[in-house]
Amino acid sequence: MRKKLLMTVCAYAMAILVGFAQTTVTGKVMDDKGSPVAGATVLEKGTKNGVSAGNDGAFSIKVKNGASLVVSALGFETRTIAANSSNLMVQLVTDIRSLSEVVVTGVGAATSKKKLGIAVEAVNVGNQVKVPSGDVGQQLVGQVAGAQISSTNGNPGQPLNILLRGINTIQGGTFPMILVDGLEVRATDLGSIDVNIIERVEVVQGAAAASLYGAQGANGVIQLFTKKAKAGRLNIDVSSSATTNELLNVGGLSKSRFHAFATDASNNVIKANGQPLVFDPALSVYDANVQYSALNVASFANKAYDKNLQYYDHYKMFLKKGYVLNNSVTISGSREKVDFLLSASYNKQNSNFKDNGDYARSNLTSKLSVELAKNLKLTSLTQLVYTKNTLNDQSGRGIFYSINNSRPFANYDYRDPDGNYGVYFGDAVGVNGANPNFVNQYTSTLINKVDIVQNFNLNYRFARYLELDAKYSLNVSNSNTTYRYEDQSLNKNAVYNDYFYSNYNPNSSPTSTGEIDNYVDRTTFQNFVGTATVRTDFDKDFGLKVPVKTVTTVAFDYRKNNYRQFAAYGYDAPG
Question: The whole model's pTM is what?
Answer without folding.
Answer: 0.77
